[in-house]
Design goal:
Layout (H helix, E strand, L loop, with lengths): L1 H18 L27 H14 L2 H5 L2 E8 L1 H9 L11 H17 L4 E17 L3 E14 L5 E17 L2 E11 L7 H6 L4
Parallel strand pairs: 1-5
Antiparallel strand pairs: 2-3, 3-4, 4-5
C-alpha cells in the first residue's frame, strides 16, 4: 500500500514539474548543427568544380575555401605583366609567386574589402560558357576560361574598375576525387590591359 502511495506522489510531482515549465530532465538533447564547410562549396571531384569553388570563395571572401583550391606546389604566373613590370623595374611584383604568396595576397584582399564594405567591393565572374580544355591525362588537366573582375569604389566618389582577361589553370588530382590548382597563368584581355594579376599585385606588399 505504501509502495502504491509513493508511486502516486512521484507521478503528481512529475506532472507538476512539466506544467511549471521546468526543463524536462528526460527530454532528448538536441543534436548540435553539423560541422560543414562554410559558404558555397562542393567536393572538387572534377577540375571544373575547382573553378566554381574558386569563384564562390572569391565572391564570398572566404579564405579557407580559397586555399582549398590550391595544391602544395602551386605557382602563379603573369608573363605579359611580368615583362611590362620589368620594363618599369617592378618585376618583383610577380617574382617567386608560390602558394604562400597567393594565400597571403588573397587574405589581404579579403580582409581589406570586408573591413570597408561601405567603401569598396568586388565581384568575380568566371564565364563557364567560354571554358575550353587543353592537355589532359588521367590525373591532370588544363582549363582556359575568360573572367571579369569588377571592383567598385564608393568613396570619396563612385567608380568602377574592370579587370578582364583569360586564366589558364593547370589542375591535378591530389587525392581521391580531389582536384586542385598547381599552376595558374593569367593574361589580360588586350596587351597592357588591366587584369586579375594587376589587381592581386596591388596587395602583395
Amino acid at each position: 500500500m505504501l509502495k502504491g502511495r509513493n508511486l502516486q506522489i512521484f507521478s503528481v510531482l512529475f506532472i507538476l514539474i512539466i506544467l511549471s515549465g521546468c526543463k524536462n530532465p528526460f527530454k532528448t538533447r538536441k543534436s548540435p548543427p553539423p560541422k560543414g564547410q562554410v559558404g558555397t562549396w562542393s567536393t572538387p571531384s572534377k577540375p571544373e568544380i575547382v573553378l566554381e569553388n574558386l569563384m564562390h570563395s572569391y565572391n564570398e571572401k572566404i579564405i579557407e575555401n580559397f586555399n582549398l583550391c590550391l595544391s602544395d606546389t602551386f605557382v602563379f604566373s603573369a608573363p605579359e605583366d611580368s615583362i611590362e613590370a620589368a620594363n618599369i623595374n617592378q618585376d618583383y611584383l610577380f617574382a617567386d609567386w608560390n602558394q604562400n604568396t597567393e594565400k597571403r595576397v588573397t587574405a589581404n584582399i579579403f580582409n581589406i574589402f570586408k573591413q570597408y564594405p561601405d567603401s569598396i567591393d568586388f565581384s568575380l565572374y568566371l564565364n563557364f560558357e567560354t571554358i575550353s580544355k587543353g592537355e589532359q591525362t588521367d590525373s591532370t588537366e588544363v582549363l582556359f576560361i575568360d573572367y571579369k573582375l569588377s571592383i567598385w569604389r564608393f568613396k570619396p566618389k563612385q567608380d568602377t574598375i574592370e579587370a578582364t582577361g583569360t586564366s589558364t589553370f593547370h589542375l591535378k588530382e591530389t587525392g581521391l576525387n580531389w582536384w586542385s590548382i598547381y599552376f595558374w597563368e593569367d593574361r589580360p584581355k588586350s596587351p597592357g590591359g588591366y587584369n586579375w594579376a594587376n589587381f592581386k599585385a596591388e596587395y602583395r606588399y
